[in-house]
Amino acid sequence: MGLFLHVVLFPGGDEAACRAALEREARDPKLSLRPEDCRWQTYEKGPAVELNDGANGYEAVGRLSGAPDGSGLEGPVLLAYIYDDDFWGYELWQKGRELDQFASLPDYFDQGSPPDKPGDADLVARCFGVEPERIRRYLLPWDKEPAGCAYEGDEFTAGDSWQMADFLNALGFDYDRLCPPEPAPEKEPNQPAPTKPGPLEVLSLAWSQMRRAADAPVLPSALTDRPYALERAEGLGKTDFLRLLENGKYQDLAAGLTEAIQTAPEEPALYLLRAFCWKALEGRSARSRTPDMLRDLSRALEFEPGNVMALRGRTSLTTTSRRYPQQIEDLTRLMELDPENRDLYQVSRAYFHHWLKDDTAARSDLREVLERGELWTVDLVHLCRELGLPSF
């Protein structure tokens, strides 16, 4: 299952009233709302909330907007969502009436669902106090949108569901500020996350559940290697960041890094360190930090495309089969950059080929590893047997 993300914006809204509305609607179990697991942030243009995992944001947004009789919230309410990491869209409501909707991938379910139409940039712009031309190019279905980013300075291209974050930023609701790290529990010291023994970082979760071989080395990555994180922090020359990292204050460090990125968006070390923090904080709340890690590592790799540690980290973050081609591309690059561990990467690549049902490519990778005769691990033997290679 991929990523399902629901973010609700209340332009011009009062945070107390918006929170009260969410608490009220959470009484209905059909919406699966858990206010304690929702994340709020207040911007100059109003409050926003990221709903908890599993919440029914599509039905909740209409009810949060109030009712036609005048009860409830006064202003507009916009639900921005990512569906299964395949596409993004929004619904704009006011007083219980839907004003507009948009989906970047129309006809996803069947013809007309979602409808094949652009969003109403003029209407959205009036609700959020922005120029229509600043958002119009986001509101084209992907098959009608030029390849690449909608606007100069965007992080994400057409075809990437995280384009939603660029859209929110253009409306004045910076997504990175929406999800700051959670405060540490009062009675529990903020200690570094324990390092658990596991498989190669270059393997996906599915493979990691399958293998427990003692002979499989664990390669360090930007997500897991503390000495590397300390080295990058020292390179920034910021003693406060280094002190927070040394003391395991990952929540405070992530917040500081988010602020620093606003003023130095082209500094790769900031993204690498924040990805390290997200990994350390993973599991401390119901919200998965995998999308945040993936975004930060991808951003760092834009500036340092040959960074082996970042590539290893990104290869470990498979969320859906749509990302497998990217994993294969990263592993191929790692084979070139880090020939000492070529066999490990190539076996990993064979698994991704196999999961994509390209067993010809998988067998080719395995035969090359076997011909070199330098690696012999449980996962290698397992896939050779599964693919019916001779002598297995």
Task: Give me the secondary-structure topology.
Blueprint: E1 5-9, H1 15-25, E2 39-43, E3 46-50, H2 57-64, E4 77-83, E5 87-94, E6 97-103, H3 121-128, H4 163-171, H5 175-178, H6 205-210, H7 226-236, H8 239-246, H9 250-263, H10 268-281, H11 290-303, H12 308-315, H13 324-337, H14 342-355, H15 359-372, H16 378-386
Antiparallel strand pairs: 1-3, 1-4, 2-3, 4-5, 5-6
Structure report:
The protein folds into two domains: 5-178, no CATH class; 205-386, Tetratricopeptide repeat domain (Serine Threonine Protein Phosphatase 5, Tetratricopeptide repeat, Alpha Horseshoe). Residues 194-214 have low confidence and may be disordered. By secondary structure, it is α+β, with helices and mostly antiparallel strands. The chain is 42% helix and 9% strand. It is globular and about 75 Å long. Strands 2-3-1-4-5-6 form a six-stranded antiparallel β-sheet, with helices on both faces. Helix 9 packs antiparallel against helix 10. The protein contains 16 helices and six strands. The two termini are 33 Å apart.
